[in-house]
Amino acid sequence: MKDHESVLDYTVEPDETGLRLDAFLAARADRLSRSRLKALIKDGHVRVGARKLDEPNYRVKPGETVEVDLPEPEEATPRPEEIPLAIVYEDDDLVVVDKPAGMVVHPAPGAHNGTLVNALLHHCGDTLSGIGGIRRPGIVHRLDKDTSGLLVIAKNDVAHRDLSAQFADHGREGPLKREYCALVWGVPQLRAGSVDAPLDRDTKNREKRAVRRGGRHAVTHYRVEETFQNGLASLVTCRLETGRTHQIRVHMAHIGHPLLGDALYGSGFQSKVAKLPADAADALHSLARQALHARSLGFRHPETGETVLFHSQLPSDFETLLNALRKPSEALQGRN
Question: For the residues of 178-191, what is the DSSP string, one character each?
């Protein structure tokens, strides 16, 4: 077998006789996904002997030489931008980033520039081997714009496929772990519990998600770590069993304890801000977002198979609010 930057070729062994062409290549070219190989076959980049074949279901024969001509990865539509990133870990297969609040993960209408993808395209450069033939980072999960914390991003097809499967499995059969810190209004009646409630788009506001019968399965496990100001607020650890859009924000609001600073799901709790001590109210105003941080992220490394676990410190604005809430409740005197 020869393995150049732009050409791969393989000889069919007797025990591989009768395999579909795409299946044969998927077993041999393990750095490319089967869907990517199928696309290469259909686009005329694969030869068997002297023949160019565009049929993924062609059955290979012993002794045949199969050659794959790899085109250069297309440049991604988002443009690279030199934006500082907090890199927690990086190797040839993936990069773990500590995303700041205020940064959008992927370009979208109204947010074409300044995103995490723009920053990663600049940071990773030629180390991105191409996801689906396009030189781009492989996004396998996301955080809301105003949620801070840990994200893992794939740098090649194989890592993207493996990590995507782990996130799709939600850790049922693997070590995937996603843990968040949240500050919520009030104190949940159960100090540790689970919210199992399906989520779908809100019928009245497309920017929101809502608990709706027939929605997508969603489960959040939570644990109360601390309570503050005579039960006015709590620090809660949330662990995701699924990863739906706005899941923690919706689920905590659903049980009557929306996140501090969450204007979308906790608007009915704004009057409680007046009950906070002055420095806590100021800190919440400065936070200007939901108090949610992706603190821990664990998964099976797609190349080594080892379980890896990463942690992130609370950002300073979150820490400032937390410390203000921890001050004795006597600070409430004169404010009620």
Answer: EEEEEEEES--SSS
The crossing angle, in degrees rounded to 10, of helices 278-287 and 316-326 is 160
Mean pLDDT by 10 residues, the chain (336 residues): 62 88 82 76 86 87 88 68 95 96 80 86 78 69 95 90 90 88 97 96 87 94 96 97 94 97 91 93 95 98 96 97 88 42
At position 327, the amino acid (one-letter code) is K
Dig out the tokens for 216 from the structure.
Answer: 């997508």
Secondary structure of residue 164 in the 3-state scheme: helix
Instruction: Tell me how far apart the alpha carbons of residues 296 and 58 are, in angstroms, rounded to a whole number.
Output: 46
| SS3 of residue 235 by DSSP | strand
**C-alpha 143: how far from its chain's center?**
6
**Helix ranges (DSSP H) in 48-156:** 116-124
pTM: 0.75
- Tell me the C-alpha to C-alpha distance, in Å, between residue 100 and each of 87, 202, 209, 244: 11, 27, 23, 20
Tokens of 313: 């410190």
- H helix runs in the chain, sequence order: 21-28, 34-42, 116-124, 157-169, 247-254, 278-287, 316-326
Q: Which residues are catalytic?
A: 144
First to last CA, the chain: 77
